[in-house]
Amino acid sequence: MVQTPTSPEKPTLLIELPSSIGLHVTPEQFTALSAVNRDLKLERTAQGELIVNPPTGWETGAYNWSISGELYFWWRNSSEPGKAFDSSTGFILPNGATRSPDASWVSQERWDVLTTEQKGTFANICPDFVVELRSSSDRVESLQAKMGEYLENGARLGWLLDPQQRQVEIYRPGLGVEVLDNPESLSGEEVLPGFILSLRRVWG
Questions:
Q1: Cα–Cα dist 11/163, whole Å
Q2: Which domain holds residue 146?
């Protein structure tokens, strides 16, 4: 849905966009849209297409909270320096897309080489570690493509969690996707040493 500009003489008009029509925006327009639509999770593809994700339902929100909380506790107690982020954080990937993983982490070494400008509203970097959580309205093919995009742009480890199927897909550079059925836990491997995500806690 697109809201047209208003003036004192004209009322606000809402235009419904069918899914077959993509809305394309420049990086500057995307930043402006994000600033005034903080309740929405907005993303932008490398081709400039705007992706609007509505607020999550309570179940997905609870899953996200658990994942981000576990990542935070690891980060707080870890000797591994870096920056951890929740689902509200956007990153401009090297290919020009702006993506918001459900949880992510960037190594301190890579973060420190960014200039002040590159650390603007959306940091110009692909996280080393990313998590995407499938909600009931998500197409798994779209999330799989996004995971592939993360790897192509510098991610070293990615998890795609599907609570409905109790299934996890693990993405690593140069390797095939590893699929786990109803695992009890996941390891951060050498990317996040010592980080273990208990899926019993996440699934509930």
A1: 43
A2: 58-203
